[in-house]
UniProtKB/TrEMBL annotation:
It comes from the Eukaryota. This is Uncharacterized protein. The lineage of its organism: Eukaryota, Sar, Alveolata, Dinophyceae, Peridiniales. The keyword Transmembrane helix applies. The chain crosses the membrane at residues 396-420. InterPro entries: AB_hydrolase_fold.
């Protein structure tokens, strides 16, 4: 009996997805897509997974993907290019996924080609080092580069390489969305919905574990209850005080959960706030109204949010940020996301944040397969994503058995067992992430009015 080629390709991809979840140098997958993008005048490079059509002149859209805490750029590259291929746009779209490495990697190792030389930048101290914009590790007498500057540089690389762009998408999920949000607050890119060179630009962010508030006020206790739905409306924001709230030793508004400390010249050298301030000062000089300037710049950007409607597992035990300041934002990712949408509406008069939900938990594959991401990125619909930790792909296992390939069938079964014990979320069996944009819950509105 003939074996369906798509079935075995899918099973092979599943096995790799289960086993490859970190930065690898040389890359385990997509070796032909591994390229070095030079930074700091060629002193170092950032490892990038790149898809580009044979004719670079045909590229109309570029998608820059920001991976999650696992530094699994290969997975994000697979999800984004999968959406691109589903839309039939592989000849019109370029995809760039930089990887924020945590150990040494040479350009020759990354590409498999000895003609490339140089060392990769790395952020080896913690995930927060690159998520929150801190500089990379020192290399000799070079003091490193902010991860936010890296995004700017990859964006410039794209504009230099693809001269006929009509759209730029910057997207991230989970830690990638945390990074993307904070970068969008401070970066000069995206003002008035365009890149610095004038190319239309949209930032699409999915389910960040924490956010950065633009004022010291935080959601009232009534907005941080144990139960949360997508219909919750948080309209009460107050500044914490010792009488009624935790104040986190008066540090609840410190960056990265607020913008306190950014622009302050007294921050210790090498600290996250000092590095982000240095990055920001390239574009905004000493401004006595820095907070208002950042708010106005952020409001002009085209930013889209989406959250999993069952991403409700309480933060803690490594699930998501449980810092004192983070817990003032909400008890879980969905609640934090919904509260933040109302914060933006509350702090930016006339601003209507664009957001929706997909039916699922903390699942990047659902985010990238869903209608919302695909509508904004590729102007097309999403598709039914097969989840290997649910019964939704049971039929494929049956097909594998019928095909007589017991070995191939056993491998995804093992993957099912592993994934079912990955307490990613309290709900695993998900339905199709398809829903009409006008009926998505909740939508507060469109762009700024």
């Amino acid at each position: 009996m003939a074996r369906p080629p798509q079935l075995f390709a899918g099973l092979f991809a599943v096995v790799w997805t289960c086993t490859v979840t970190a930065f690898h140098c040389p890359p385990v997958r997509f070796r032909e897509n591994a390229v070095p993008v030079e930074l700091a005048d060629g002193r170092v490079f950032i490892p990038v997974y790149r898809h580009q059509p044979k004719k670079s002149k045909s590229v109309k859209t570029v998608v820059i993907g920001l991976h999650g805490a696992g530094r699994n750029g290969d997975n994000y590259f697979q999800w984004i290019t999968g959406a691109m291929q589903n839309a039939g746009l592989q000849d019109d779209v370029a995809v760039l996924v930089p990887v924020f490495a945590d150990y040494e990697c040479t350009a020759a190792s990354w590409t498999g080609k000895t003609k490339y030389t140089g060392d990769a930048v790395k952020w080896s101290h913690s995930t927060r080092q690159w998520v929150f914009g801190q500089k990379s590790d020192r290399q000799g007498d070079w003091h490193g580069i902010s991860s936010y500057q890296v995004i700017d540089d990859v964006l410039r690389y794209a504009e230099m390489r693809y001269r006929r762009l009509s759209k730029i998408i910057v997207t991230g999920f989970s830690a990638g969305a945390q990074m993307g949000l904070r970068w969008s607050i401070f970066s000069p890119q995206g003002l008035s919905g365009t890149s610095i060179t004038g190319v239309p630009m949209t930032i699409i962010l999915g389910s960040p574990s924490s956010v950065t508030y633009l004022t010291p006020a935080r959601p009232a206790v009534s907005c941080r209850g144990p139960d949360v739905t997508v219909d919750d409306n948080c309209t009460d924001f107050v500044e914490p005080d010792e009488a009624h709230y935790k104040t986190c030793h008066d540090h609840w508004d410190d960056y990265p959960f607020g913008i306190e400390g950014i622009g302050d010249g007294d921050m210790p050298p090498g600290s996250i706030r000092a590095d982000v301030t240095e990055y920001l000062r390239q574009y905004i000089k000493h401004d006595s109204l820095l907070q208002q300037t950042l708010i106005e710049r952020f409001a002009s950007k085209d930013i889209v949010f989406q959250f999993g409607d069952t991403d409700t597992k309480k933060c803690g035990h490594g699930t998501c940020a449980n810092d004192c300041a983070a817990m003032l934002e909400g008890n879980n990712r969905l609640q934090r996301g919904i509260n933040y949408m109302w914060h933006l509406k509350w702090v930016l008069p006339g601003y209507e944040p664009t957001f929706s939900t997909f039916h699922g938990g903390h699942r990047p594959e659902l985010f990238f397969a869903g209608e919302y991401f695909n509508k904004f990125a590729f102007n097309t619909d999403g598709w039914n994503e097969c989840l290997w930790d649910s019964l939704s792909c049971f039929s494929l296992l049956v097909k594998a058995l019928i095909a007589g390939s017991v070995v191939v069938a056993v491998l995804p079964a093992v993957c099912v067992y592993v994934m079912m014990h990955r307490h990613i979320n309290n709900h695993y069996v998900r339905k199709t992430p398809q829903h009409d944009l006008e009926q998505s819950k909740p939508i507060l509105g469109g762009r700024s009015s």
